[in-house]
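Collaborator request, handled under Task 6.
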Amino acid sequence: MDGIINMYKPAGMTSNDVVITLRRRLKPLKVGHAGTLDPDASGVLPICLGKATRVAQYIVDGEKVYIAEMTLGVVTDTQDASGQVTEQRPVNVDVDDIYDAVYSFKGKQQQVPPMYSAIKHDGVPLYKLARRGQSVVRTPRDIEIYDISILDIQFPDRVLFKVRCSKGTYIRTLCHDIGQKLGCGAHMSYLLRTQVANFHIKDSVDLDMVEQMYRQGALEDIIIPIDKALVVFDSIYVNREGYERTLNGSSLYKLHVEHVPQDLSIGDIVKIYYNDEFLALGRLSQQDTGKCVKPIRVFV
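Structure tokens returned to the collaborator:
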């Protein structure tokens, strides 16, 4: 039972609520999630079971795709519809203004995380400080909007758009920042996450389906093996000696490896196999004795 479930999180539950629910239903499996989704948002939430909890960070690093609705003219303290309205302004913009503002956010940029977030300041989550009425200076973070497109405009104040972005991007902050650029303010009024890395919403399952499959003894039918979930990483194949060294966590050199992709760079992560058996994740390193692959997550 080591692998990932492509879970559909409904609106109204926190990501941790989903994990707690599954822990109760899937005892004694170890359960975690990869990539927090806001309580009011719905969509893809990869759930890691067993040893797969050790690769959650690599899934989180993948790109994400969202469909979001932005409401112009209303600013909230949480930057979404769940917060308190802090400002209302007239919406004196036309369609061209909206298109220009939205598309101007495509590309690499820095984004200031919202106060209502799980990011910690001196060990305390920002949202706890925000609930106390406190505000602290947040360090801008590097993000990238790979693509952004407007799907519909319900003039004058509703904009539906699709965005493909890097990890660490807050879509509600994106809505807020677009509103500031337009001069009328805005907040996020709807959010659906349709993709995390190679997990797509069309293939996702809900909590009831997971429980049903578990009761039928067929949970494995919806669990994606760890190596199949990490499709972005290249594979290397080791010989028998390499197999033993991998299990011991020892570095792998040329004599231990039967096949290495030619385009790997120092620091790249690879999947390590012996024949068809997935053994571990490793990182390509440069040592005094030459290039090697150091196992960093061993699963066998």
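The cover message to the collaborator said: "The longest strand covers residues 141-154. The chain has a mean pLDDT of 93. Please let us know whether this matches your experimental observations."
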